[in-house]
Every structure is written in C-alpha cells, then in structure tokens.
Amino acid sequence: MKRLIAAIAALTIIIPGTDTADAAIIAKPMTQIAQVDRAASGIVLSGNQILVFGNREKNGFAQLVSGLALELSCGVESFVSAATTDIEGNFYLVGAASNQNVGTLPPISGVLNPDNVQSDPVSSNKSDASMLCMWKFDTTGKLIENSNMQLETAVIPTSIMVDKFGITIAGASYSNPGFNSFLLNWNEKPTFIGKNSTQILSISRANDGSVVAVGQSREKLLDKVLRGKADGFLAKVKNGKLVAVQRSSDLNASRAWRSSTSNLLLGGNSNSTAVITKFASNFSPTWTDRYPSNGSASTANVGNLNYGAFYSTGAIRALPSWKRKGAIILLTFDSNGKITAASYSTASKLNGLAANSTLGPVILASGFIYRA
C-alpha cells in the first residue's frame, strides 16, 4: 500500500505562445480561508462547500471546511485518489483497496517515476489494491452510497467524472512490469491504453460523448511514437476504442499532462518547467506558455475564465511585474491566453486547484485553503 500511495503523489509541438499581460497587473496575496488536515492532497467544490481529501496509514479521509471529517474505509487497506461532483452537487470520491490474499506480489517497476520513488513489496497477508472503491456524499457530509468493483490487477484511479453518461473512472493499472492505463464506466469492462508505460492522469468529456484522456506515455500509441524521454499525450476514446492521439514532446525531456478541463485547458510539466496549453477540440494547440517551476501546473475553468496554478521559482515573461521566487502563483487567462489577473501564496506546496462560479478559483496548499 505504501508504494501505491507514494505513486499517487509521484506521477514536439510548435504552439503559439501567449507572452502577453496587462503591464498594470500586479499579483496580489491570496486570502487564507481555512485550515485543514495537512495530509489532504486534493480539493473539490460544490456550490459554496469545499471538500478536501487525502490518506492516512490505513485508509483515506475526506474533510469539509465546516470541520466534519469523513473516514473512507474499504477492504483491508484503502486509499482515495480522485474526486468530482455531479449535477446535483453531490461529492464522489474514488480510490482502491487491498483484499485478503495469501502471498507477496513484487513491487511495481518505476517506469513512469521521474522522482525515483522506491517501491516496496506488499506485505504477505494482502494483495495489491485491485478493488476500486467509490464513496458518494451530499454537501452536509452524509454518506449516500459506498460501492466497490473488483478488477484483475492493482490500480491507482487518477480521475473521475459523473455526468449523463454515468460514472467514468480512469487511472493506472499494474501490467507486470510497469503501468498501462485503464478507462471504464462503473461496473463495466475497462478499456486499456498502452502496454507497460502509459498513465492516464485526467479525463474530460467531449461534445460527441467520447472521453478525452490526458497523461504521460513512453510507448507508441496508435501511430504516434515516443519523441522525448516521456511524452505528454491527449487521447480520444469512443465506444471503448482508442481513436485519436496527440503527443506533446520535448527532446530529452520528460513531459506529462496532469490536469485537464472540459474546454481542454491542460496543465502539466516538461521536466521541472510548468506548462499550460489550451487545445482545440481537434487536439490542435491554440496557445501555450511555460513557467520556471519545481513541478507541474494545475488548471481549472469556469465559463470564459481559465485558471492555472503552479509553484513559481522565477520571473514570468508574460507577467513583467512578477519578481517573487518561491511562491504559488495563480493566473487568470482570457480565451486567447492573455493573463488578466494574478494572485499568490507563500505556501510551500501546491496540492490542488478547483474553481466554480460560486467561489471562483480555490487552491489547497500545505494544509491551508486560499481564495484569490
């Protein structure tokens, strides 16, 4: 379980750059609105309610900003790794759990492991986490549903969405050695992408009902071959089949797309440089920018407003007024990629970004919640 939870925290296109911002824009300090469990690693919004989630030694947890803590137990040991809301505002959280199983499975090879996280064997009285677990809560914290779904191999779910098509979950699946990626509707057979070095890290729904999956890959997908050490990718899955792929590559670099939105605003990284790119529905990039950072960018979208956040380690070319190093910065973009607002926090680690029409952009950072 330790290596699975560690893996949760671990995981060449010519594009027009933005490089524009109103010279008068000054980054303003964010407002701290709540303190939560420092183990919280993700955030999701429903109206004016904020929920964070994370993992302790044996099980996952969720916490509302009202202070109500929700224990997320499932199987022998379990973790939670992704969350979303439905149209009615209910919270859905997904993770995985171990079952009783005699024997020891080997550690998962670190194929997509840029931080060189060391894996360890599973203890002899547990299997790998091969059972998907899902929890549904209303905005008061009342448990509505707790379901599980047994899969054939160990999995780490990384993204979930709930819409008129049902409950769709994606993530990484142990393929001995390495990871491939899985995509499924709840209680239906999964679709797998890749063989041993591909991970889906985020999903969204296209207008035609297909699923757009983004992530990282070190192997050929359809006719698209590896160009860097690891490439970011966008993939369209329709009726259970992979039908289109676009790769994002830099020579001798490890790239990944780690967040996406319904309008295809993607956040990711090229080595330690944060990257934000807006794609069209045909997967052609419309604008992009890169920022000195120590990790990936996260993205969110509300209407015509696009948000990107990352830990800044230097000057930002598109925001001349920004001189601070070692701070989390939240940028607001218009539809053309021009920066229209900026705010920052001096917290040491960005754990998550979420946004809705009620609260605007909200970040989780080092056990605190901030608003722009």
Structure description:
This protein has one helix at residues 2-10; strands at 28-29, 31-35, 40-46, 49-55, 60-64, 69-72, 78-85, 91-97, 131-137, 143-150, 155-163, 166-174, 179-185, 191-193, 198-205, 211-217, 231-238, 241-248, 255-259, 265-270, 273-279, 285-291, 298-302, 305-312, 327-333, 339-345, 350-356, 360-365, 368-371. It is built from one helix and 29 strands. It is an all-beta fold and 372 residues long. The model is unreliable at 8-15 and 102-126 (pLDDT under 50).
Can you count the beta strands? 29
Radius of gyration: 19 Å
Counted by DSSP, the helix tally is 1
Oligomer: single chain
Indicate the mean pLDDT.
88
* Helix-strand makeup class: mainly beta
Q: Write the H/E string, N to C.
A: HEEEEEEEEEEEEEEEEEEEEEEEEEEEEE
Name the shape in a single word. Answer: globular
> Strand percentage, roughly?
over 45%
Low-confidence stretches: 8-15, 102-126
Largest sheet: 5 strands, mixed
Helical percent range?
A: under 10%
What is the straight-line distance between the termini?
36 Å
Major sheet: arrangement of strands? 1-26-25-24-23
Briefly summarize what is shown:
The protein is built from 1 helix and 29 strands. It has 372 residues and is mostly beta strands.
List the helices and strands and how they pair.
Layout: H1 2-10, E1 28-29, E2 31-35, E3 40-46, E4 49-55, E5 60-64, E6 69-72, E7 78-85, E8 91-97, E9 131-137, E10 143-150, E11 155-163, E12 166-174, E13 179-185, E14 191-193, E15 198-205, E16 211-217, E17 231-238, E18 241-248, E19 255-259, E20 265-270, E21 273-279, E22 285-291, E23 298-302, E24 305-312, E25 327-333, E26 339-345, E27 350-356, E28 360-365, E29 368-371
Parallel strand pairs: 1-26
Antiparallel strand pairs: 2-29, 3-4, 4-5, 5-6, 7-8, 8-9, 9-10, 11-12, 12-13, 13-14, 15-16, 16-17, 17-18, 19-20, 20-21, 21-22, 23-24, 24-25, 25-26, 27-28, 28-29
